[in-house]
Amino acid sequence: MSNNHYYSGTNSQGNHYCNRGESTAPGGSYHYSNTNGSYYYQNSNGSTYYSNPNTGYKSYTPSSSNSNSNSNGGSRGYSGRK
User: Fold this and answer.
1) What is the structure's pLDDT at 78?
2) How far apart are CA 47 and CA 69, in angstroms?
3) CA-to-CA distance for 24 and 65, rounded, in angstroms?
4) How many domains does the chain have?
5) What pTM did the predictor assign?
6) CA 9 to chain centre
7) Calpha distance 57→37 (Å, rounded)
8) Which residues lie below 8 Å from residue 21, measured CB to CB, with a gap of 6+?
């Protein structure tokens, strides 16, 4: 049974977040809009996407049930975690 809780706010680093579902994924989904212009999504299936338009860096991590991945290298530099 799906639980459609929704909440949003701003963390101590000034990054905005929204969360849907029972909790952070898996089981829910969330995203961050970071103060540096980057953004981070985690979907309920566990897949993640990060993009920083200032540097051109993008990273996609598939859910554990999908073995394909696409990344242009480097490390995820997001600071948007709660």
Assistant:
1) 41
2) 10
3) 18
4) 1
5) 0.62
6) 15
7) 12
8) 2, 3, 4, 5, 27, 28, 29, 44
Q: Tell me, yes or no, whether 15 lies in a domain.
A: yes
pLDDT of 4 reads 64
Answer whether residue 77 is part of any domain.
no
**CA atoms of 60 and 66, how far apart (whole Å):** 12
Residues ≥6 apart with Cβ < 8 Å to 9 = 16, 17
pLDDT tens for each residue of 18-65:
887 765 545 678 889 999 999 999 888 889 999 999 999 999 999 887
Residue 62's nearest CA partner among 47, 45, 43, 44 is 47
d(CA 44, CA 27): 5
**Structural domain span for residue 50:** 6-71
Token readout for 16 is 């905005």
- Does a structural domain hold residue 1? no
Examine residue 82 and state whether it is found in any structural domain, yes or no: no
Residue 75 pLDDT level (bands cut at 50, 70, 90): very low
